[in-house]
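Hey, I was hoping to borrow your eyes for a little while. No rush at all, and the record is pasted right below.
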Amino acid sequence: MKKSLYGAAGAVLLTATSVPALAGAKIEIGEESWVSVGAGIRTAFTAVEDGAPSGDDYSTDFDVQNIRLYFTGQITDKIGITFNTDEIFGDGPVDTLDVIARFEFSEAFNVWMGRMLTPADRIEMNGPFYTVSWNQYTVPLYPSDQGGDAGQYGRDDGLTIWGDLGKFDYAVGAFEGLSGGPNDEDNLLYAARFAFHILNEENSPAYYTSSTYFGGEGNILTVAASFQTQDGGTGSIAESGDFEGFTVEIFSETVLGDAVLNFEAEYKEFDADYTVGSPAAGDCFCLFDGESYFGTAAFLFPGKMGPGRIQPYLRYVENSPSDGDDSDLTEFGVNYWISGYNAKLNVNFGTGDANISGYKGDDVDSFSIGVQLQI
């Protein structure tokens, strides 16, 4: 059964019993009203081939990749407020992540207004904290993850209507998208995500997702599609163009006794009139144009080793821009889950030339050790 994002006390993202919820600190105000506070951090040591200033040696960097504060308020049983922040990479100002006025009438029909995730593919709906792989952002992303001109961190100002109709989940919305520049007619960006659960439902809140439920929801097989479009969503003031993109994906989780096998795959196609490879005149908001796909397989070993469980995974990405060379990247990693998504260690090795732009980069090897904690 799909749940309200904050229908349980302080559960910042996942409320399923199989995935430890973020309890945080809760202050009761009235019979139905309360506020809660939580936090999350992702930090890593990374070494990249030829990444040192010399150009011939491995870089050695310690980075705080995310610092998040979560604030939740419940006014009545159907009305709530969400305010989350993030300081990405730990080297800039604290940015607003989510500011949502939530009207949650039933499982089937809910309305959010404010700044929130635009309905998109599973990568965006997982976010960095609820994915199996540490480096999932090596494929081109939708406009709201392109540096702030059309939103940031996959979020944008707008309105989303979402609900759960048994085996079918939907989320449709209208957002600011790219404002100004080539969008001189002030057109909105329209976004939608539809998911069908063939076996058990994913017990994530609202229209959010996860890359594993640790077997707590039984066998899962979900197929989903997402779509975004905006007239005037790419180009420059001098040369305006349109953008549209769609994604189809499949996710499965199979329980094998006390072990869990996960598989996730996605195909993405973007159509942008102006691209990174051939920018428009002037200050261009140029996007990826072409195809991309990835597949991730993970296996959670039965039983604990010390306080946690071990999960190796393999991820393969390929990007094929219409105006550039193909690129690919393979990531092999091992997660050590101590308390679900609230306490996780990761070691991973990557090799290839694919990156978030969708265009071919340097073909290098990389290694990282990551720590994720939430409360």
